[in-house]
């Protein structure tokens, strides 16, 4: 991994830091995993027709088309759909610009996860008009159905909050 980062850093010298390259790789991997999982759900196991598959007593694959923001809040179709796509693209562009300059691995990971997840859900809105959600842990009393992109965004935001509240001004850069 160090050799890959060094190679990317050499090619993009001055435009992307070493950890910026790591963040961009994390974003690409998160995006690919998200899109592969959604393709499998839609076309591999045909979940839109089957609707639900019990995997474990507490975990199901359940087909949900989410036209709102996180956890189905504020449903948006028509113009709202495109405003959400635009918002995702603008936020992703801002985060890509930020991640290019980071000098901490934790920050690179957190931003990469958010970028990959945001782009993954934007792709769904463009392609399908809604986000493909399918991970259902309602057996554990978690009421929302979500996807890999949602998980990446949530984990990335928690990591980012952790970074903000645990890093001191005097901390050396890692």
UniProtKB/TrEMBL annotation:
Catalytic activity: Release of signal peptides from bacterial membrane prolipoproteins. Hydrolyzes -Xaa-Yaa-Zaa-|-(S,diacylglyceryl)Cys-, in which Xaa is hydrophobic (preferably Leu), and Yaa (Ala or Ser) and Zaa (Gly or Ala) have small, neutral side chains
UniProt keyword list: Aspartyl protease, Cell membrane, Hydrolase, Membrane, Protease, Transmembrane, Transmembrane helix
Pathway assigned in UniProt: Protein modification; lipoprotein biosynthesis (signal peptide cleavage)
Pfam families on file: Peptidase_A8
Kinase among keywords: no
Topology class, membrane: Multi-pass membrane protein
Enzyme Commission number, as recorded: 3.4.23.36
Keyword hit for Protease: yes
Major place of residence: membrane
Database matches in InterPro entries: Peptidase_A8
Top-level taxon of origin: Bacteria
Ranges annotated as spanning the membrane: 16-34, 82-99, 106-123, 143-165
Catalytic-site annotation from UniProt: 133, 150
Gene Ontology MF terms in the entry: aspartic-type endopeptidase activity
Places the protein is found: Cell membrane
Function: This protein specifically catalyzes the removal of signal peptides from prolipoproteins.
Family, per entry: Belongs to the peptidase A8 family.
UniProt protein name: Lipoprotein signal peptidase
Organism of provenance: Asticcacaulis machinosus
């Amino acid at each position: 991994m160090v050799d890959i980062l060094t190679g990317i850093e050499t090619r993009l010298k001055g435009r992307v830091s070493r950890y910026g390259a790591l963040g961009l790789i994390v974003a690409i991997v998160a995006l690919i995993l998200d899109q592969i999982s959604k393709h499998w759900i839609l076309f591999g196991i045909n979940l839109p027709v089957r609707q639900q598959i019990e995997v474990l007593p507490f975990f199901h694959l359940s087909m949900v088309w989410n036209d709102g923001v996180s956890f189905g809040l504020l449903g948006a179709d028509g113009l709202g759909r495109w405003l959400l796509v635009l918002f995702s693209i603008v936020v992703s562009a801002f985060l890509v610009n930020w991640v290019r300059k980071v000098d901490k691995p934790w920050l690179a990971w957190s931003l990469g996860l958010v970028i990959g997840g945001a782009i993954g859900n934007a792709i769904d809105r463009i392609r399908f008009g809604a986000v493909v959600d399918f991970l259902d842990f309602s057996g554990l009393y978690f009421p929302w159905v979500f996807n890999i992109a949602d998980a990446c965004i949530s984990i990335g935001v928690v990591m980012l909050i952790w970074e903000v509240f645990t890093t001191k001004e005097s901390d050396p850069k890692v």
